[in-house]
Structures are given as structure tokens and as C-alpha cells.
Amino acid sequence: MSEMVGELLTLIIMAFALGMDAFSVGLGMGMYKLRLRKIFNIGLTIGLFHVWMPLLGLIAGKFLSEKFGVFATIIGGLLLIVLGVQMIWSTMKKEEAKVITPVGFGLLLFALSVSLDSFSVGLTLGIYGAKTIMVLLCFGIAATVQTWAGLLLGRKVQGWLGTYSEALGGTILLGFGLKLLAQIW
């Protein structure tokens, strides 16, 4: 029993740590003018990605080497950099058209970018034989709640900063993408 409690506590801490990127990126993305319903949907989407990405990682962890985890981190970092640069660039231009927004395909890119690291962790957990249901519940719930918190806080900050909020949000995304890539080298 104490072994299961220890594993659950470890998974909760790990889920919280992985959810911090969803919070940070949600903080930046929350600076878009988003309705509460959209914030709710974004949080659920990211939570779902934090369920199926580690599930894929758990399954693949039995078959793939650790080098694939580095590849996933590179892809995630590059996606965040593209999102961040796009947000910064859109504040410099007068027109309102955005290449990537947290709607449709942009939301899927956003969710994918913040959940790729959970795929990498899933690879490792798959190698060590972690309990799949506990991993998925912890990761999904933590990512959903932390995304909502980041988006709601970003929404508040957006109101305070006016037109510069999107540039700040883009800077946060860009910085987080660079941080992911810097961890590799």
C-alpha cells in the first residue's frame, strides 16, 4: 500500500512539473482576447493531449530508445518558438490576421507543443513499468487545471497591458521554446 502511495505522490509531483509548461504557455496564450468558454475548451484540449501523449509514450517506451525523447523536445521547442514569434510579429503589424491562434488547427498545435514533453516522460515511465491509469489521470488533471489557471491569469494581465500584452505573451512562448531547446544542448 505504501508503495502505491509513494508512486502516486511521485506521479502527482511529476504531473505538476509537466503542467507548469501548460501554465506558462497558457499564461502567454491567455493574453489573446479569449472568452471563458474558449478558455474552458483550451484547458480540456490540453488535458486530453496530456492524457494521450503520455499514453503513446508509455506504449512506445517499451520499443524506442531515449533518443526519441530528445527529438520530441526539439519539436516541442520549435513549435513554441514559432507560436511566440508569430504572436510578437502580429503586434508589430497593423492587420489583425494571425497565422496561428488557439482555435482549430492552431489549438491542436498549441496543445501538441505543450504536451510533447509528457510524451517524452511517458517513454521513460513505459520503460520503468509505471501504472498507466495513475499516470494518465495525474497528467491529464494537472495539465487541465494548470492551463486554466494560466489562461485566466493571462486574461487578467492582458487587460492591464493593453496592446503590448500579445507581445509579452509571444515573448513568454518564445522564451519557453528556447528553454526547451537549451536543455538539450
From TrEMBL:
Cellular-component GO terms for this entry: plasma membrane
Subcellular location: Cell membrane
Record keywords: Cell membrane, Ion transport, Manganese, Membrane, Transmembrane, Transmembrane helix, Transport
Molecular function terms from GO: manganese ion transmembrane transporter activity
InterPro entries noted in UniProt: Mntp/YtaF (IPR003810), Put_MntP (IPR022929)
Transmembrane parts of this sequence: 12-32, 39-64, 70-91, 103-127, 133-154, 161-182
Superkingdom of the organism of origin: Bacteria
Ranges in coiled-coil conformation: none
PANTHER family for this protein: MANGANESE EFFLUX PUMP MNTP-RELATED
Family to which the UniProt record says this protein belongs: Belongs to the MntP (TC 9.B.29) family.
Function: Probably functions as a manganese efflux pump.
Protein name, as recorded: Putative manganese efflux pump MntP
Lineage: Bacteria, Bacillati, Bacillota, Bacilli, Bacillales
